[in-house]
Amino acid sequence: MVLMVLPLIGSVSVSEVLVALTTACLVYLMVRYFYTEIPAGLRRLPGPTPLPIIGNVLEIGRRPYLSLTAMSKRYGDVFQIQIGTRPVIVLSGIETVRQALVKQGEEFSSRPDLYSFRFINEGKSLSFSTDQAGVWRARRKLAYNALRSFSTLQGTTPEYSCMLEEHICKEGEYLVNRLSSVLQADGRFEPFPHIVVSVANVICGMCFGRRYDHDDQELVSLVNLSNEFGKVVSSGNPADFIPALRFLLSSTMKSFVDLNTRFTTFVQKIVNEHYATFDKENIRDITDSLIDHCEDRKLDENSNIQVSDEKIVGIVNDLFGAGFDTVSTALSWSIMYLVTYPDVQERLYQELKSNVDQNRKPRLSDKPNLPLLEAFILELFRHSSFLPFTIPHCEQWEDPSSFNPDRFLSADGTEVNKAEGEKVTTFGMGKRRCIGEIIARNEVYLFLAILIQRLQFLPIPGETVDMTPEYGLTMKHKDCRLKARMRTRDEQ
Ligand code: HEM
């Protein structure tokens, strides 16, 4: 073979030899770059073989929650894939995930340092930041305390047990009236666009002490951005996984940067107004309480972690961002399930009717008397798994694909089975577990109780309700028009 090649060399020009040598060097460097050296004594994780540059993106496809589940059946609970040029370890199975996030919580408490995360909240995001020098920890604690103290604060009148209840009850009433007028005008409605404004108003109330009208274009356009945001963050921006692409600013990336700027500008304006009218003796909302905290820290020379004024914007921005899309998605899916399972909807209505006087609105204190509603919410979290990467493993459940709230009830249906409920891990686990969990659970419960008491949700005759989710940070249902009927107070 060598002998056969030698005579050919004479007919090749110097420049051709140089091109060939350069190509060979590039191939060699690429192979070295993609080949991850495994430290001695450790073995390579199982997983599909990656292609150069793109890795396994073709196998992952558009529905990663399904393709990765299929891969876990083939490669086991711990396997490796490659997205672009980045190696990614995939964990599945409740015990494996618990081992990593809870038992080895410290090691797994960080986030990957992705390029697009630098544009979220100007790189100061609590939810998306890696923990540098304990800053995430300090911000998380601050945000958690602010959320807790403002949701449990006394309502403005004794009618409400706390501020959170007051905000939800008032927004629930506005929502019912809004749906009633849309139904009168059009005879049908789309759940998500109305719900998202009501839920955003609850978090706006707590963070900024204000609410917006359902037709307020500034808020409506802002809350609609969350869908685009979720698509980039969850499906991955190519520049996160192929560093060379950072230099080619794609249109997706441009709109991602733009939407983050719009979000921050919205919050910044409100925070500035709060600074201008700040009164230490009258802390009005979460923004005020964070400003107050910063003022104290400036005076406290011993404090080791300073939270600067600009980070206040970051924290409020995070709470606002995390606080409306998730809850709205849960509520919007709830309506879809009520329509798809009318017998469950009727049982929920009857439960409310027997336990809450028709002449008053449901309250947080009614929760222990409404076990079916609580079981319905647990089953909604489990069955929809709308946060795709907190999917509880199927083997934990009997007949996992059927929607059956009764699986969470005691045999006589009077109590929620707490042990079963704890297997639903929608809020994550470990050090990064959701800090809005209590607020979120209360919001989903109380909004639903108010809606079910006042409205009966129905499909449009002749139209099917499509329950196929669309992939995103929170998986939403497709746009869907429904009917609803206002309940009369004396109906059976
Ligand atoms: C049904 C509603 C909600 C669900 C299902 C949900 C779920 C989650 C999940 C799965 C995480 C990530 C956990 C992890 O990385 O391991 C998370 C993080 C977070 N959630 Fe929620 N959430 C909800 C509502 C809320 C609300 C209402 C707020 C605030 C008011 C909130 C604030 C946050 C924050 C700030 C983080 C980031 C925590 C960190 O990185 O340290 N969430 N949530």
Automatic annotation (TrEMBL):
It catalyses: an organic molecule + reduced [NADPH--hemoprotein reductase] + O2 = an alcohol + oxidized [NADPH--hemoprotein reductase] + H2O + H(+). One of its GO terms (cellular component) is endoplasmic reticulum membrane. It is a peripheral membrane protein. Its cofactor is heme. GO terms for molecular function: heme binding; iron ion binding; steroid 17-alpha-monooxygenase activity. It is found in: Endoplasmic reticulum membrane; Microsome membrane. It is an enzyme of class 1 (oxidoreductase). Heme binds at residue 434. Keywords: Endoplasmic reticulum, Heme, Iron, Membrane, Metal-binding, Microsome, Monooxygenase, Oxidoreductase. Cytochromes P450 are a group of heme-thiolate monooxygenases. They oxidize a variety of structurally unrelated compounds, including steroids, fatty acids, and xenobiotics. Belongs to the cytochrome P450 family. PANTHER family: CYTOCHROME P450 1A, STEROID 17-ALPHA-HYDROXYLASE/17,20 LYASE. This is Cytochrome P450 1A. The gene is cyp1a.
